[in-house]
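As a warm-up, study this chain.
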Amino acid sequence: MINANVHSEHAQGETNASGETGAQLRMRMGANERAFQSRWKRNFGYAFNARRICTPDEVLQVEALYSGNIVRPLRERVANEACDNDKVENPSSNVAGGFLETEISVVEPQESQAHPAFLWVTLALSMAVSVPNMFGIMSVVKENFWLAVMATAAFTIAPFALIMAKVSRGWYLVIYAIISIEIFCNCAGFYGGLTGLEHSLYVAPTKFLHMVTTMTNSANEPTALLLSLFFSVGIAMLAIAPVENLKNQIK
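Now compare it with the structure written out below.
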């Protein structure tokens, strides 16, 4: 069917011939005879005839081939036109009469990223809240003011430095380890403050702890421990949230 359409197009093209024979066209393109015949056969699907006058379409195709322009071969255009005509005459069963089926592309909405400036502020606030408790614990552990200052500064600044250094995802475990140290320091600091053990060796509950134990009818030490864990984990979540978002944004 395609070859018949092609040859019929040749017959129609004879009336609008370019006046240039196949041999003249080949010489004008400066092509080797065997190479020209091979490209002609591959592009048009029929043999090259040096004596026949070329049609305008054939001249256009050959000029495009040798000029580097991309033009669909004649037989491909005829095949596509026949395929399109068949689709119009025989529409698919799920297409209503008079309407052509079209593809509807669905664009998924992109998830908006958090603003980095607010993430840095949140991380800084969570670390700043932990500084007093961390310094108090380090002072007890080191029993030296300057060593406690250095340890507190290291644990406070390290998360910022590691994130800004764009470390790989595996090294973010170091940041989470530092946050876990802060959880312990905050928990111990809150517990010492609620029970009064921060200043003495005997339990002396604060008014807040006494109020909570009275309200819940519970003992001082377990209640103080639960409250301390609650506060310290809440502060840790304020640090983990910006770290996770910054990890996805900074690459």
